[in-house]
Amino acid sequence: MQSLVAPVHTPVPVEVLEAEIRRVCGAFSLEPTLSSGIVAGDVATRRMGLFETAIVGLDASKHVERGVKAIRQDPGEHFFLLIQDAGRCRVEQNGLVADLAPGDMFLVDSVRPSRFFYGGVRSSQVSIHLPRQEMVHRFGDACTGGVSISRSDPLWLAMRAVMTKMLDGPAAQPQLGEAFLCLMGAYFQSARETGTRRAPASLLSRALALIDRHAADPAFGPRELASRLNVSERMLQRHFRALGETPGHRLLNRRLDIAHSRLCARTADMAGDGIAAIAYDAGFNDLSYFYREFRKKYGMTPGAAARCH
């Protein structure tokens, strides 16, 4: 899929990038992956028809968060229509969970806590700032609390086409902006009629939270996860189909992410026993399996990853 924009990824102190995000988008906190406190990224602004737009590039960032304290300090006057342009991002808001691939969209409500996970992978996003008061006046509560817009919806293609035109040039921009809002209204109406807006994200959100919390426990697997959620393993697998993976694959990737993050924060001359300790601490109890899956995901050995930071 062709990208909408080409953001810059410049290594800067995390405080600098956080300040830029705050200036453009409001109060968000950013946690870097590396212990050095350096993160690669950039935030730029651009006018897109009726709307202010932020072009956000992030690299090697664990997550960005807008919590209750930040909302109190900065209530926010916008929704943020987040378009994943490159890389991936997991969005969590109001019990909803969406794993965004390039092209996917998520309407973030600035008055509700939200978290964005990047997993140390370079990500580029376009954030369209939509006036909250006007949106609620037009569409009611259908646009509040977080709304996922998938490429599988027929209206996605029309919204994408209008966005591309608004980014390309100034011609007929007011009309394009109004057309874009009308398409969003049609999406909200369709979602309301089909009743699909929030299914089945609540259980999926709880499952992902449990995986994040217990991934380092080697005894924690899909069976234990299903038991804690009081559902069958088969039902749990059906909920994970929305992410295009199984609970076991998500758990494996989380353990690999933990190990990769810790390896990148360690010294380049790490001995084999140090790597083994990190693997065990990340939830692996089979070193050969850890080495095989690590190489498969990152294209290098754990020792090479430790030398690359």
Percent in helix: 40-55%
**Shape label:** globular
The CATH architecture of the largest domain:
Sandwich
Question: What integer is the average pLDDT?
Answer: 81
What does this 3D model show about the protein?
Helix content is 45%, strand content 24%. With 309 residues, it is an alpha+beta fold. It folds into two domains: 185 residues, Sandwich (Jelly Rolls); 107 residues, Arc Repressor Mutant, subunit A (Orthogonal Bundle). The strands form two sheets. A seven-stranded antiparallel beta sheet has the order 1-3-4-11-6-9-12, with helices on both faces. A five-stranded antiparallel beta sheet has the order 2-5-10-7-8. The longest helix has 22 residues. About 2% of the residues have low confidence.
List the defining traits of the structure above.
309 residues; alpha+beta; Jelly Rolls; Arc Repressor Mutant, subunit A; 2 domains; seven-stranded antiparallel β-sheet; five-stranded antiparallel β-sheet; 12 strands; globular
Layout: helices, strands, pairs:
Elements: E1 10-13, H1 14-25, E2 29-32, E3 38-48, E4 51-59, E5 61-66, H2 68-73, E6 78-86, E7 89-93, E8 96-100, E9 105-109, E10 114-117, E11 123-131, H3 132-139, E12 147-149, H4 154-168, H5 173-194, H6 201-214, H7 222-229, H8 233-240, H9 247-264, H10 272-281, H11 287-298, H12 302-307
Antiparallel strand pairs: 1-3, 2-5, 3-4, 4-11, 5-10, 6-9, 6-11, 7-8, 7-10, 9-12
